[in-house]
Amino acid sequence: MIAVDVEATGTEPHKHSIVSVGAVDIENPQNRFYGECRIWDGAHVMDEALAVNGYTKEQIIDPKKQSEAELARAFIDWGKGIADHTFGGQNVSFDRDFLRTAAERAGHTDWPFAHRTIDSHTLCWMHMVKRGLQPPIEHNRSALDLDAVLIYCGIPMEPTPHNALTGALSHAEVISRLLYDKPLLPEFAQFSIPWK
Questions:
Q1: What is the CB neighbour count within 10 angstroms for residue 38?
Q2: Closest Cα partner for 150 from 141, 159, 139?
Q3: pLDDT (tens digit, 9 = 90+) per residue, 113-131?
Q4: What's the mean pLDDT in 65-73?
Q5: Tens digits of per-residue pLDDT, 130-177?
Q6: Domain-embedded: residue 74
Q7: What is the mean pLDDT of residues 97-107?
Q8: CA angle 88-134-166, nearest 5°?
Q9: In a domain, 64, yes or no
């Protein structure tokens, strides 16, 4: 499984652009990917998205950075060497759709990754219910965002601004804890698993 996190200029993959990608091979967690890119010409930019990921408008159009197409190709090339092409993460269909759309936009037709995903939100919800706990609800819907999942798993909230590699590491760690009851990464070894 590949824990993946995408930072983008907005929420719609056909309208917005990737600005960075982070990923971790959960079976071999030393195998990691991180890349940044300039946005594609004509991509829309939401100020709110930049506030979350910390990029400036100057950084996302920097001509010295690789293009979104080049980043998509580099990610595909990295991921081809991993046995399980299933993506895992928080709301990971967002990340999958951005990566696939970027690859299509660039003319990369060799998309090796799975359509089905493993969502850490769902894993955490199920884990809580099986322990007899009530998952948090706000505004009549789940309040298990990544920070809530991290805290449930005994890990501090993700630092801000959000970084794609930090996000991918967080996803990999909570997936390991929720599925296997064991820590995965040295970055989180000091934090014990609350339910053990």
A1: 20
A2: 159
A3: 999 999 999 999 999 999 9
A4: 97
A5: 999 999 999 999 999 999 999 999 999 999 998 999 999 999 999 999
A6: yes
A7: 96
A8: 30
A9: yes
Note whether residue 195 is domain-resident: no
134, 111, 138: which is closest to 124 by C-alpha? Answer: 134
Asked if 88 and 82 touch (Cβ cutoff 8 Å), the reply is: no
The number of beta carbons lying within 10 Å of the beta carbon of residue 99 is: 24
- Judging by DSSP bridges, how do beta strands 117-119 and 87-89 pair with one another? parallel
The domain in which residue 164 lies consists of 2-188
The whole model's pTM is what? 0.95
Residue 5 β-bridge partners:
22
Residue 98 in domain: yes
Nearest partner of 19 among 28, 4, 56, 30, judged by Cα: 56
SS3 sequence, 103-135? HHHCCCCCCCCCCCEEEHHHHHHHHHHHCCCCC
Q: Spell out a b/e string for 150-167, using b for 16 or more CB atoms within 10 Å of the CB, else e.
A: bebbbbeebeeebbbbbb
When divided into structural domains, the chain yields a total of 1
Cα–Cα distance, 48 to 114 (Å, whole number): 30
The residue length of the chain stands at 196
| Both tokens assigned to 31 | 């195998």
Reply yes or no on whether the pLDDT at 109 is more than 80: no
Other CB atoms closer than 10 Å to residue 13's CB: what's the count? Answer: 21
